[in-house]
Amino acid sequence: MDHPEDESNSPNELTIEEPMNRLSRAASTTLTYLHLDADKVLSSFGKFGRYQMLAYLLSNAIMACHAASVMIMSFIAKEPKYSCVPKDASSNTSAFALNRCTVVDAANRTESCLHSADFHIHYPPDIVHATLGAEFNLICDDEHWASHATSIFMLGGMIIAPILTQLSDRYGRRYTFLIPLWVAVISNIVCSIAPDYTTFLVFRLIAGVGTVGFSTIGWVLCLESVSVEFRSLIPFVGTISWVLGYELVGFLRMAISSWRWLYFTISVPGLLTVSYYWLMPESLHWMVIHNKTKGISKYLKNSSRLNKKELALDQCRSSEDCEEAQLTRGPNEAAKRTLFDILKFPALLVHLLFQCFIMSVMNAVYWGLSLFSSDLSEDEMSGYLLSGFVELPAGMLAVFLLTIFGRRTVSAAALLAQASSMAAAVLYPGRNWTSMVLQLLAKVFNSICWAAQPLLLAELSPTSVRNIFYGIVGFVGEIGSIGAPYLDILKRLDERAPALVLALLSAIAGVAVLFAPETKGKILPADLNDFDAGPVWNYFFPKKAHEDIRNGEAGHSQK
Asked: pTM for the full model?
């Protein structure tokens, strides 16, 4: 009599059980990471977790490239020394040079020295290849074109910021950080070998697109890669890196007279960032919000190996309230957020407008003080190097203040102190030690603000729309950057006008910061329903913010 086969050895059962086991493992993995709290995971790896510090250092190190690619314009965009001289010194022509740009011919008619048959522009031998103006004849009526190289760089960043940040919230921080970084590096190298000024401007625009892109995404990636306990220390390495790039341009300028070699020298080290492809991890916060289980698993594996620490994931879950909120809005709803979701919530929209204004003022003051720092003293290099150096102690002071006081307090105090310094500088116009000290003091307070305010901005915005929010603020904020090179035009009205305008705007921005919520020591809001509208909004509209969020969630879930 034949015995029936053991069911466990049935080949049919094996082919059924194996896929079922794989499905079970996949489902188990999904459930394991379903309610993971990214902040709790990062905190569990420690305040100075090695893997987290790697992402922190990498995202901040490239700020030296950003600083150098902007500050180089302080030297290569300066008006060169030149004169209008006869082409043939022995000629008996009755034409003569009226000034550096204009020639009066034999018929008593004026013409440009650039187009004269008898005269030409002469540059001293050490100036010919030192600046853009000398090499491409950006002088006289074309002098303003040299300033456009700075503004078009900022314009490139302004164009790309809202687009790139939307892509970053949808497709991840890592690639939207790396691709702009490499685009910026290649574009800057091309700028150094540009055959004509049009080519230079085109690639300068592309370099701006990449530079502002990787800086914006890099800041958010940095914030989302470290623990809550470490966030107050974020400006430390970023400040050192920025000042290094800033000062490096000045020291290299003293050794390299050619603008092309100077530009190439500050750009080519960027090729080392190819290594970031293997070193830079994705944001854990973004992966949790988007339920990227494979990415989370890889992150935890790499982090555990480098930190030599295994986590108990059951202790790194969201609170019951957060889990309930996630179930209410659905697992993928936060991943679908767009600008229109921000526009639906008045409280978030108001904060967006305030932050846009504040960022514009910060940019205008910083670039206004930095780009014209070589004019602070008779010796252009002294003013430039001092203006960059003061950012270092300012950054260290900012880190100290941020560990003691809240982000909002430090930001508001710095902006108001900046306003006071600029207002005092109005009383001492011209080149003098008092004016220079006051402007350097304003730079110190501005640097403190740059350490605190972006931190406040990133921490108050929900993860699901953080890059969109940050991108819009960056987009509008670049208005201040683009306008900074033209602040000197205000001097036609009064020499003190630029400082007075910046002082007034800084004071208004300082008051605007007080409308923001305090974010120190708080976990990052995951989605819109976690957003804190701040003390002023909550005082005047105690229920409206919560009603807006509930109504918005309901409307979003019905789509």
From this structure: 0.76
pLDDT attached to residue 558: 44
pLDDT greater than 90 at residue 189: yes
pLDDT band at 23 (very low <50, low <70, confident <90, very high): very low
Q: Return the ∠ at Cα 551 (arms to 545 and 554), rounded to 5°.
A: 140
- pLDDT higher at 130 or 325: 130
Question: In angstroms, how far apart are the furthest CA atoms of the chain?
Answer: 130
Other CB atoms within 10 Å distance of the CB of residue 144:
10
Element at 206 (helix H, strand E): helix 197-223
Handedness of CA 325, 329, 334, 338 (dihedral sign): negative
- Confirm if 364 and 480 have CB atoms less than 8 A apart: yes
Share of the chain above pLDDT 70, in %: 84
Q: In the predicted model, is pLDDT for residue 206 greater than 90?
A: yes
**Side chain identity at 86, as an amino acid letter?**
P
Instruction: Tell me which DSSP letter residue 110 carries.
Output: E
DSSP secondary structure letters along 127-140: TTTTSHHHHHT--G
- The residues near 66 (Cβ < 8 Å, ≥ 6 apart) are 211, 214, 215, 242, 245
Q: What is the pLDDT of residues 253-282, one digit of tens each?
A: 999 989 999 999 999 999 999 999 999 999
Confidence of residue 202 (pLDDT cuts 50, 70, 90): very high
For 457-518, give the secondary structure using H, E and C: HHHHCCHHHHHHHHHHHHHHHHHHHHHHHHHHHHHHCCCCHHHHHHHHHHHHHHHHHCCCCC
What pLDDT score was predicted for residue 77? 84
Share of residues in the chain with pLDDT > 90 (%):
28
Residue with tokens 């000042």: 243
Phi-psi region of 277 (alpha: psi -120 to 50; beta: other; left: phi over 0): alpha
Residue 138's nearest CA partner among 188, 182, 184, 201 is 201
Segment 25-68, tens digit of pLDDT: 444 445 556 678 888 888 888 889 899 999 999 999 999 999 99
Residues 6+ apart with CB under 8 A from 513: 354, 358, 408, 411, 412, 415, 453, 456
Within 313-390, residue ranges assigned H as helices are 320-329, 339-343, 346-371, 380-389
Contact 371, 150 (CB under 8 A): yes
Rounded-to-integer distance, Cα 279 and Cα 180, Å: 17
H helix or E strand, kind and range, residue 226: none
Cα 143 to chain center, whole Å?
Answer: 29
- Contact between 430 and 461 under an 8 Å Cβ cutoff? The reply is no
Buried b (16+ CB within 10 A) or exposed e, 1-37: eeeeeeeeeeeeeeeeeeeeeeeeeeeeeeebbbbbb
How far apart CA 314 and CA 312 sit, in angstroms, is 6
β pairing state of 110-112 and 102-104: antiparallel
Of residues 228, 174, 221, 289, the one with CA closest to residue 527: 289
pLDDT at residue 419, rounded to an integer = 94
User: CA 186, CA 267: separation in Å to the nearest integer?
Assistant: 8
Angle CA 461–465–471, to nearest 5: 85
pLDDT averaged over every residue in the chain: 80
